[in-house]
């Protein structure tokens, strides 16, 4: 082992080799535990074992970091919804995404924290929007008595509202021990069942 290949040097080079991912992972942990307001680049640098200036190399500032998290989240959401069999399945997948990625979910829908013109964010958000539209596309306006766009807004509102209430623990009593995805399927069937 060469003198520069000490375990400490290997750890430092590992962090430098994948510092961006390490900072994102640490940020997701902080947001998941304490919300986006608790996020500090200096604290994240300490957690990653790098200088306090190192995260700025990848994200410039806190808004850049949160924007990267939101962009990653919208990309994951687009993939998740893009695999849906139908509109109800898209809603279930939306709720599942929120449960599996609560830190992403919190940041994605907080535009005041983000750089709205960031190309990565704009692109990922467009992909997620296209996936949602794709799930709504088979809905025919005459079936529901509203145009497809309004049906899409209603479906998104139901899934997003349910996921938000679930994550904030406002549905603990109503859902109880039942699987939240099954509860959502029942709600969707009740509201979006064929007339």
Please state the average pLDDT score.
86
Classify the fold: give the CATH topology of the largest domain.
Answer: Tetracycline Repressor, domain 2
* Strand segment count: 0
The level-1 CATH class of the largest domain: Mainly Alpha
Give the overall form: globular
The fourth-level CATH homologous superfamily of the largest domain is Tetracycline Repressor, domain 2
Q: Helices and strands, in N-to-C order?
A: HHHHHHHHHHHH
Largest sheet entry: none
| Fraction in helix | over 70%
Poorly predicted residue ranges? 1-15
The CA-CA distance between the termini, in Å, is 72 Å
Q: What percent strand?
A: under 5%
Q: Can you characterise this structure?
A:
The chain has 12 helices and no strands. The protein has 195 residues and is an all-alpha fold. α2 (19-34) packs across α7 (102-108), α5 (62-82) packs across α7 (102-108) and α6 (87-100) packs parallel to α10. It folds into 2 domains: 1-59, Arc Repressor Mutant, subunit A (Orthogonal Bundle); 60-195, Tetracycline Repressor, domain 2, CATH 1.10.357. It has helices at residues 7-17, 19-34, 41-48, 54-59, 62-82, 87-100, 102-108, 119-136, 141-144, 148-167, 172-175, 180-192. The chain starts with 6 loop residues before the first helix and ends with a helix. Residues 1-15 have low confidence and may be disordered.
């Amino acid at each position: 082992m060469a003198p520069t290949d000490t375990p400490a040097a290997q750890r430092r080079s590992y962090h430098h080799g994948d510092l961006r991912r390490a900072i994102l992972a640490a940020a997701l942990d902080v947001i998941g535990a304490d919300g986006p307001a608790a996020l500090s680049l200096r604290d994240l640098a300490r957690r990653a074992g790098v200088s306090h200036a190192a995260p700025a190399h990848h994200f410039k500032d806190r808004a850049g970091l949160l924007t990267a998290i939101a962009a990653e989240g919208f990309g994951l959401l687009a993939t998740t919804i893009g695999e849906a069999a139908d509109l109800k399945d898209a809603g279930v997948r939306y709720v599942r995404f929120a449960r599996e990625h609560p830190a992403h979910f919190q940041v994605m829908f907080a535009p005041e924290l983000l750089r709205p013109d960031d190309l990565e964010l704009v692109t990922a958000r467009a992909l997620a929007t296209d996936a949602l539209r794709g799930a709504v596309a088979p809905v025919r306006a005459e079936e529901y008595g509203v145009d497809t766009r309004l049906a899409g807004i209603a479906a998104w509102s139901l899934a997003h509202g349910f996921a938000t209430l679930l994550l904030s623990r406002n549905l603990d009593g109503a859902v109880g021990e039942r699987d939240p995805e099954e509860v959502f399927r029942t709600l969707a069937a009740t509201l979006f069942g064929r007339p």
